[in-house]
Specification:
The protein is of the alpha/beta class and 290 residues long. Helix content is 42%, strand content 17%. The chain is built from eleven helices and twelve strands. Strands 3-2-1-4-5-6-10-12 form an eight-stranded parallel sheet, with helices on both faces. It has a two-stranded parallel sheet with strand order 7-9. A two-stranded parallel ribbon has the order 8-11. Helix 1 links the parallel strand 1 and strand 2.
Length: 290
């Protein structure tokens, strides 16, 4: 039995699917069981609660062989880093209370750095807090999600431009699909000997210009990257619905990415998922058509 958090999201769903297809039993911690009905019909055991609730976590972990944990973003929280810290504290205590054997934490490129990384700093703190919480613990540090382009996909479709805070549009950088993160998490949960840290990229590094071309090909139109001025970033993010604190942290993260401060540590276990950006984008066009 393996526990999956975030099963109604992208990486959690991919992890659960991979575990089920391999013949494992799956238990999911969900805030609203009604939204996870399709998983219950697949045989997933649902535990009501969230990752801030130590008792709900303990019930989910009880009798399980391992758990995949992610820290859900809280865009309106006045202190997103403190929120991530509280999640990690609850997970660590519940893991010890339940005697959980293995944990896989979805972390991030740059999580080894203590500052200058925006919301990734919350994962730096989570890694620190979770150290020793389970005998077998893996930090799955993923790079920039391919799905980050989804929020501006409608703009590309309607206006032929791809807004981005990545300033060097010709510099290749890694991008990974959420489905590959989930599948890797499932592999790490079931591996006989999983490493302490895994760094995960996509099949190949891409420039923003290449990403715009891939998105344009899927849309059947030309798409060109555009970059808002730095002083407008926080305001744009707040207009999109993010709280002020989270918007400022995201702007800091992009500053770190652009300066190459946010980077991988360079641990021995570095992996590449197989999903191309074109495949991820194709799923968005298919969903639109449906």
């Amino acid at each position: 039995m393996f526990v999956v958090t975030g099963i109604t999201g992208n990486t959690g769903a991919a992890a659960a699917d991979a575990l089920l297809h391999a013949g494992h039993r799956v238990r999911a911690l969900v805030r609203d069981p009604a939204k996870a009905g399709s998983w219950a019909r697949k045989g997933v055991e649902l535990i009501t609660g969230d990752v801030m609730n130590r008792e709900a976590l303990r019930r989910a972990f009880e009798g399980a062989s391992g758990a995949y944990i992610l820290v859900p973003p809280h865009p309106q929280h006045p202190d997103p880093v403190a929120n991530a810290t509280q999640v990690a504290q609850a997970v660590a205590q519940a893991s010890r209370d339940a005697g959980l054997e293995r944990l896989v934490l979805l972390s991030s490129e740059g999580a080894h750095l203590p500052s200058g990384t925006g919301p990734i700093r919350g994962l730096h703190e989570a890694e620190r807090i979770l150290a020793g919480a389970a005998p077998r613990l893996t930090y799955l540090r993923a790079t920039y999600f391919q799905e980050n382009w989804h929020s501006v996909f409608p703009v590309a479709r309607e206006q032929g431009v791809l807004p981005t805070f990545l300033t060097d549009v010709n510099r290749p950088r890694p991008m990974v699909a959420a489905r590959d993160i989930g599948r890797t998490a499932a592999d790490l949960l079931t591996a006989a000997d999983a490493p302490a840290i895994v760094e995960l990229k996509g099949p190949r590094d891409l420039t923003v210009v290449e990403a715009a071309s891939i998105i344009g090909s899927a849309l059947g139109r030309s798409v060109t990257p555009v970059q808002p001025p730095r002083e407008a970033w926080a305001g744009i993010l707040m207009q999109a619905g993010l709280g002020q604190a989270y918007a400022k942290l995201l702007a800091e993260m992009y500053d770190g990415i652009n300066s190459e401060h946010v980077r991988f540590e360079g641990v021995p276990d570095q992996r590449r998922g197989p999903t191309e950006l074109a495949d991820t984008v194709a799923s968005w066009t298919l969903a639109k058509a449906a």
